[in-house]
Amino acid sequence: MDEKSVQNYSRLKDDPEILLQFVNKYCTVELIKNTSFSGFVHSIDPISKSIILAVPCENSFQITLLPGHAVTNLFESNQENVTSPFEKLKDENTNNDIAARKSKVMDWFKLNLLTVTESNENIVFGNVSILPPYNVTDICTDNPMVAMQVRKIIERMPDD
């Protein structure tokens, strides 16, 4: 296995920007008791530092939750001719579809008398950011209660 950069996870935990660089990349995560998992990093919890990893398993992927307290090292490694499960999701959404969805979500918030703005390609609502492709799973905030309320608003949005 060719390691690109070995990182001591205890040093990385304090820098969320570095942790964000590992998202959607093929990485190896070493755990206590000499255990390791390799797969695509789906997300890293900013509070507990737990890692959600999509581990290749035959023709699909197994989603594995690795508790933050058990992680000792994290490093990007070579993928073994496996395409990321997240690239498939990106291909399904064209730029026109994403732009239309963004406009629709922003209009829905405004219709509900909520102030929304744009920041780059994100929709910003207070301390909440909604990332492309602007679905209920793309809500980013530190407050789970707020995330749940924003999710409910988006779920009530009509399909047409």
TrEMBL record:
<dbReference type="InterPro" id="IPR046857">
    <property type="entry name" value="Gemin6_Sm-like_dom"/>
</dbReference>
<dbReference type="InterPro" id="IPR009422">
    <property type="entry name" value="Gemin6"/>
</dbReference>
<dbReference type="InterPro" id="IPR047574">
    <property type="entry name" value="AD"/>
</dbReference>
<dbReference type="GO" id="GO:0000387">
    <property type="term" value="P:spliceosomal snRNP assembly"/>
</dbReference>
<dbReference type="GO" id="GO:0000245">
    <property type="term" value="P:spliceosomal complex assembly"/>
</dbReference>
<protein>
    <submittedName>
        <fullName>Gem-associated protein 6</fullName>
    </submittedName>
</protein>
<dbReference type="GO" id="GO:0032797">
    <property type="term" value="C:SMN complex"/>
</dbReference>
<feature type="domain" description="AD">
    <location>
        <begin position="69"/>
        <end position="160"/>
    </location>
</feature>
<dbReference type="GO" id="GO:0005634">
    <property type="term" value="C:nucleus"/>
</dbReference>
<dbReference type="Pfam" id="PF06372">
    <property type="entry name" value="Gemin6"/>
</dbReference>
